[in-house]
Amino acid sequence: MSAAEGPLVVGVDSSTQSTKALVVDTATGRVVASGQAPHTVSTGDGRESDPRQWWQALCAALRQCGEAAHEAAAVSIAGQQHGLVTLDDRGEPVRPALLWNDVRSAPQARRLVEELGGPKFWAERVGSVPGASFTVTKWAWLTEHEPEAARRVAAVRLPHDYLTERLTGQGTTDRGDASGTGWWASSTEAYDEEILARVGLDPALLPRVVRPGEVAGTVRDGHEDLPFSRGTLVAAGTGDNAAAALGLGLRPGSPVLSLGTSGTVYTVSGNRPADPSGTVAGFADAHGAWLPLACTLNCTLAVDRIAALFGLDREAVEPGGSVTVLPYLDGERTPNLPEASGLLHGLRHDTTPGQVLQAAYDGAVHALLEALDLVLDQDADRTSPLLLIGGGARGTAWQQTVRRLSGRPVQVPQARELVALGAAAQAAGLLTGEDPAAVARRWKTADGPVLEPVERDEATLERISGVLSDATPLLERGPHHR
């Protein structure tokens, strides 16, 4: 037996590019073992992955955890949101999954919003105005462009649902991840039959929504490639952002800025969000409240790509200059410009590569901060620290850019892999009966240094806003417009 004070649990983060697994001691939050394995994502017009790779990566990551994973009493899987997983009658993928950052369904998103009552209808009923990231628009794209594949579909799942079902043999999801589909209504906390009928999706193909704190199932027989004992409890799991909120033990009103492949800002709220502008997605959280969230498609990878174009290290930023970069390399979700490409404005003879790189950081953070005030409730404390998480959170250039453009203190939690830790906290809650967020607070996952605020750089924010406003007609047309 591992030298642990309490039972062991496994938390999994199946993200866009890899799967990570942590074995955690429920008593202390100590990570006893960990593993990680990569995925492949297609390039070009679409962003797709073979779900079977996620399963293979999960098995590989758990094998790296060794005997500790075999001792675990419960497991929970968190995964990238929105992805459309289509399975045939044997449970095999009909085609590769359409991922959250596949924006080919932008025309279908616009059409759905128009045909079903406009943005106000969607915000009030579903909680979000669907863009090209949402699963409902991807299903509409599939039925339009690949009708033969759509006819073969016997089950529709989200990424975390697929992995959970491989463990238990039962089709389940949770309210947090379901709220990112566009066919789960936050107003009723149920699948919306009118929306499903409009896109031609039989509700019988969808997973059962497991309640917070409910067991989704147990690990079934026949998993020789996994180290779990037969009968290990399997929690509901959830989407990655809801899991990170659990992993932080997030309290209502505390703002989070996450820097990863995508950038997100969110908080926990007792008020059900309904933003008809579409900027704020009115997601549910994983334990009964709400998770108003705004997401950008371009964050750390886009900035790293610009650094690579200049042959620079990602930290080789320089101040000054008048250049503005809108790093919308994959189209953009916030602001809603799915056809956009990156834009550079204000280049001069004396502009340095380091200034262009800093401008890319500024452009990425500007989009997130513009959405932050809409995410927070009106009575939220605007001076409390921003919790900075994700792969970019420990980068000096990211930290300093967020401080300078927000004017707020910034806290960087010392705990890493917060999505997997949130999943582990959910699994621990099954064993202890605690609220998973309370488990995470007991584990002190949000503890970390606080960077004091600096004066907000209003001039840069205004310059970026001005360029964005002037360039929006061009960005809306996209790079292929003639």
Automatic annotation (TrEMBL):
Organism taxonomic ancestry: Bacteria, Bacillati, Actinomycetota, Actinomycetes, Kitasatosporales
Binding-site residues for substrate, renumbered to this chain: Q81, H82
Function: Catalyzes the phosphorylation of D-xylulose to D-xylulose 5-phosphate.
UniProt key word Kinase: yes
Catalysed transformations (reactions): D-xylulose + ATP = D-xylulose 5-phosphate + ADP + H(+)
Entry EC number(s): 2.7.1.17
Keywords: ATP-binding, Carbohydrate metabolism, Kinase, Nucleotide-binding, Transferase, Xylose metabolism
Carbohydrate kinase FGGY C-terminal domain segment(s): 313-428
Ranges for domain Carbohydrate kinase FGGY N-terminal: 9-247
Enzyme's top EC category: transferase
Domain of life of the native organism: Bacteria
Site (Important for activity): D13
Species for this entry: Streptomyces thermoviolaceus subsp. thermoviolaceus
Active site per the UniProt annotation: D240 (proton acceptor)
One Pfam family recorded for the sequence: FGGY_N
Similarity comment text for this entry: Belongs to the FGGY kinase family.
Listed name of the protein: Xylulose kinase
InterPro entries documented for this protein: ATPase_NBD, Carb_kinase_FGGY, Carb_kinase_FGGY_CS, FGGY_C, FGGY_Carb_Kinase, FGGY_N, Xylulokinase
CDD domains, per database record: ASKHA_NBD_FGGY_BaXK-like (cd07809)
GO molecular function (one): D-xylulokinase activity
